[in-house]
Amino acid sequence: MGLTWALGWTVVGMLGVVAVYTLFPELPDIFDIWIPVFAYPGFLSGVGFSVVLGIAERRHSFDQLSLPRFTAWGAVGGLLVGGFVMGVFFGRAPFAALAAITATSTLLGAGSAAGMLALARGGEDRSLPGAGAAGWSNKLIEE
């Protein structure tokens, strides 16, 4: 989960960076530092989300979880990272910047969780051609 979220956050973050550099071409060219800026919090949020989800929803399968509840757990994972960043840098960085980081990680966490649930549900619905409701492996056993 952490690696998937790190990749997703990096892609979204880099699209944002490209948009900013397109709007403000006078900014210095420092693209190389932005990948870890988005990847590390994405990884930590994905891990935090996995831990929170594993504890809170351990007895439910994906089809039993509602999208709002799953999204809320993703927001909690992002909020944990934002809170961690605020705890580490509080007093050394402007509060507005820390609040923006926390809000961004919370929103990205919620979006990542919603996307992961959509992917998980899409994966559950797929079956091999000709397979019955029990699945392809049971069809082989019946023959």
Describe this entry's structure for a reader.
The chain is built from five helices and no strands. The model is unreliable at 131-143 (pLDDT under 50). The longest helix has 31 residues, at 95-125. It has one domain (2-124). With 143 residues, it is mostly helical. The chain has helices spanning 2-23, 34-56, 67-89, 95-125, 136-142. Helix 2 (34-56) crosses helix 3. Helix content is 74%, strand content 0%.
Summarize the structure in short.
This protein is mainly alpha-helical and about 140 residues long.
What are the defining features of this structure?
single chain; globular; mainly alpha; 143 residues; 5 helices
Q: How many distinct helices?
A: 5
Main beta-sheet annotation: none
**Beta-strand content:** under 5%
What separation lies between the terminal Cα atoms? 38 Å
As for the number of domains, it is: 1
H/E series: HHHHH
List the helices and strands and how they pair.
Layout lengths: L1 H22 L10 H23 L10 H23 L5 H31 L10 H7 L1
